[in-house]
């Protein structure tokens, strides 16, 4: 069942939550109308409901905090040098505290589960005066507490899973983007050799691959053009694909590429833009890819070949001056992220 769309709860989820909240409030209003002290019962009941809903929401938040999954640490758990996607280690204190508290609460709850009926009676008796007192007040107060605790828990868990994960991902992407921009600006002063850039890319860790592409953006190196082509063809994330396309664009403004290199670069980009899932029409990736294709026109194919309207080849391009580039094998697509860069 679909719970969210575009990072927000779907209408069915919103309507369901609103219906459950409304049912509880309607029950409270009806009880207050039938009570001898209706205003006091309604006011006290609202406070009790809100208190237990907030408590349940806090529990749902603790249970719903997302786990941190990073390409570096997840792929190399025993390697202390393995980093996250952003090549930094995000603070996971909140995640650890959530894990500890949920285990403690579950353990304590399981050991006391036999005393639950007695404790509910004691809770109802303690809250009975707050909901107007009288016959049945204790049972109603206990039921109200349980109802809104469960409701708060479900709402807190659901909203945490849908909204917090998205917010944390957006923050990590922004931090990674800032790190990449700094690397691009400092690339020439860092004096990385071609071999060092290649070693960085070949670690297989996404954060380090992205940093290698950032170095090639700041200091284009035709010797490592095959790394750019490889990242375009088999990117690990949409963000890495964007950095590879930006590196391809920088390559065209750097040292002169050979005809074979330009053809290989164009073939990789032209192949990638055919897949609108990897390169959505309105994304920055598409804008950069189209610019690369404009700057590397398709060679004439014995007087007949020409690119189509989107800058993609309609046939196999051949030219006496350029080598024929073999077809790129089908790519193992990476899943699209929550937001297209």
Give the topology, please:
Elements: E1 4-5, E2 8-9, H1 11-34, H2 38-64, H3 71-75, H4 93-111, H5 116-127, H6 137-190, H7 194-201, H8 206-218, H9 225-233, H10 238-253, H11 259-273, H12 284-295
Antiparallel strand pairs: 1-2
Helix pairs in contact: 1-2, 1-6, 2-4, 2-6, 5-6, 6-8, 7-8, 8-10, 9-10, 9-11, 10-12, 11-12
Describe the structure in your own words:
It is a single chain. The protein is an all-alpha fold. Helices cover 63% and strands 1% of the residues. The chain contains twelve helices and two strands; from the N terminus they run E-E-H-H-H-H-H-H-H-H-H-H-H-H. The chain has helices spanning 11-34, 38-64, 71-75, 93-111, 116-127, 137-190, 194-201, 206-218, 225-233, 238-253, 259-273, 284-295, and strands at 4-5, 8-9. A two-stranded antiparallel sheet has the order 1-2. A hairpin with a 2-residue loop joins strand 1 and strand 2 (8-9). Helix 9 (225-233) runs parallel beside helix 11 (259-273). The radius of gyration is 29 Å and the shape is elongated. The relative contact order is 0.09.
Summarize the structure.
The protein has 341 residues and is mainly alpha-helical.
Using DSSP, what is the number of strands? 2
User: Helix count?
Assistant: 12
Please state the structural category.
mainly alpha
Residue-averaged pLDDT, rounded?
A: 76
**Oligomerization state:** single chain
